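[Help] Beginner question about ligand-bound structures

Sorry if this is basic. My supervisor gave me a protein sequence and a SMILES string for S-adenosylmethionine and asked me to "get the holo structure". I don't really know what that means in practice or what format the answer should be in. Inputs are pasted below exactly as I got them.
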Amino acid sequence: MTWLADTRTSYDTVAASYAEFVSGALDKQPHMRAALALFAAEVDGPAVDVGCGPGHFTAHLASLGAEVSGIDLSPAMVDLARQTHPELRFDVGSMTDLALPAESVAGVLAFWSLIHVPDESVPVALGHFRRVLRPGGLLVIGYHVGVGTRLKTQGYGGHPMRVHVHLRQPWWLAKRVRAAGFTIEAEWALNPGNEVSQAILFARASV
Ligand SMILES: C[S@@+](CC[C@H](N)C(=O)[O-])C[C@H]1O[C@@H](n2cnc3c(N)ncnc32)[C@H](O)[C@@H]1O
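Answer (accepted):
No worries, everyone starts somewhere. Holo just means with the ligand present. The predicted complex, written as structure tokens, is below.
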């Protein structure tokens, strides 16, 4: 699949500059910290950060006491995450083919990673999230709210990229999350009112 290869290559290219870009960002993001704190408090068992990038959120969750590992499509991101956080486990993998056993985790965090999965493959990724989660397990998705798809051709210091960013309407994602076997508990709007805003969706794997 071209989009998967393009996304992988793009994030391999920007891994180091992305890590710099997000370094310390959480200090200025109280709502993001609150979402991660809620995740850590609610998840009672192993958790996985899917699309973990350089592992900054994985490490933050671990610092809050979560038993968490990370998975990312980009080998360079995973190398960086392993170097930066040698005490944590990171693996290369795609959410469209998640290599975890059924009902093996109590929490899945997917922060700004499902944004790169095209519409037709979103049910595949959500199906994997549901399969690997225990009944009652928590799924938290961070995403861009908006309409349409943007092709990002450079980023994080001007490096070349070829990555599609799919903006989504809350109703569109909610419908697919429910169809995958989840109950939606809450959705937080971050910087609402902007042309492209952010949202964090909290859903529970149906029992
Ligand atoms: C915008 S970054 C987000 C990183 C981190 N979660 C954050 O919110 O800062 C997107 C990350 O998702 C990863 N990614 C994209 N598609 C993926 C897929 N199909 N499976 C797993 N990871 C993926 C990319 O390699 C990249 O590290």
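A couple of things worth pointing out: The longest strand covers residues 133-145. The CA atoms of residues 29 and 93 lie 28 Å apart. Feel free to follow up in the thread.
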